[in-house]
Amino acid sequence: RVHGENMLRWCVGISKAHTPERLQPLLKVLPKEERAVIDQFQTNEGRWFTTISRVLQRLCIARVAKIPFKQVVIQRTENGKPFCTQVPYNFNVSHHGQMVALAGEPVSSVGIDVMKLHRIFPIDLLNKCFAVEEQIAILKVRGAKQQTKQLLRHWCLKEAYIKASGNSLRDSLKAVKFHLVDPQGKPTKDPWTQHAQVTIFGRTAAQDWNFFLEELDDYHVVCVARGPPKNISPDSPRLPTNTEPPPPFVYISTDRLLKLTKSPNARIEESDNENLYDMFS
């Protein structure tokens, strides 16, 4: 496998059990300047989300570059997007509800968006952000809960694409139109397919754009957008598009995350998924 070893899909859950005191050991592994930024957050939830996000970013670079966690240097663009020059690698992080999720790719540009299901159907979002065809796809499923889930799946598709492409299309979200497809890229009547294609202002995007929809649990949906290598940066070398299927998300407990900062290359087993449920403890 050319890329598979360094394709990463990680997820960490938090809950009310994640107290300020419990945060301190994880916070201490970050550089002093990053801890100062996190201390500015007014809520415990905000501090947890930001700490986990920054630890995940450093951990994925340490793992891919095979360097100690504390040697990782994360820089930020003018827009605040994190990047690292120590190894050619692209990563993106998202958080919402009780989840923080990271997607990392060694070749492709990547964007990720995670959303927690709303109890109330956000009708204002439907009319403001989705094209007519998308609204039809959302509303044709039965039941308010399922319609809400379908709407958030479509929202994640748009957000993940914008984050991966770097295109400033937030004022033209209806122009970024998604069509659900089967694994072979053909139109499908299955509303819960895990694949989609995109058109931008009526033009179909390149075939080397891939979108993967998943449910992290009963309450959170996620989309990962994977684009052509040239979208990583203008200076990116021309590399073959990654066509390998992505790995499943692995759920990492906060205690396990702390241990991984000391041994970044330790094996992360899919059996770690059971640790997701410490978020409800």
Describe the global form: globular
Helix fraction, binned, reads: 25-40%
Q: From the alpha-carbon coordinates, what is the Rg to the nearest angstrom?
A: 19 Å
Please, how many helices? 7
Beta-strand content estimate: 15-25%
Mean pLDDT: 86
Quote the distance from N terminus to C terminus: 38 Å
User: How would a crystallographer describe the biggest sheet?
Assistant: 4 strands, mixed
**Which spans of ≥5 residues are poorly predicted at pLDDT below 50?**
271-281
* Strand line-up across the major sheet: 4-5-1-12
What's the oligomerization state?
single chain
The SSE string, one letter per element, is EHHHEEEEEHHHEEEEEEH
E-strand count:
12
Secondary-structure-derived class: alpha+beta
Brief characterization of the structure:
This protein is an alpha+beta fold and 281 residues long. Helices cover 30% and strands 22% of the residues.
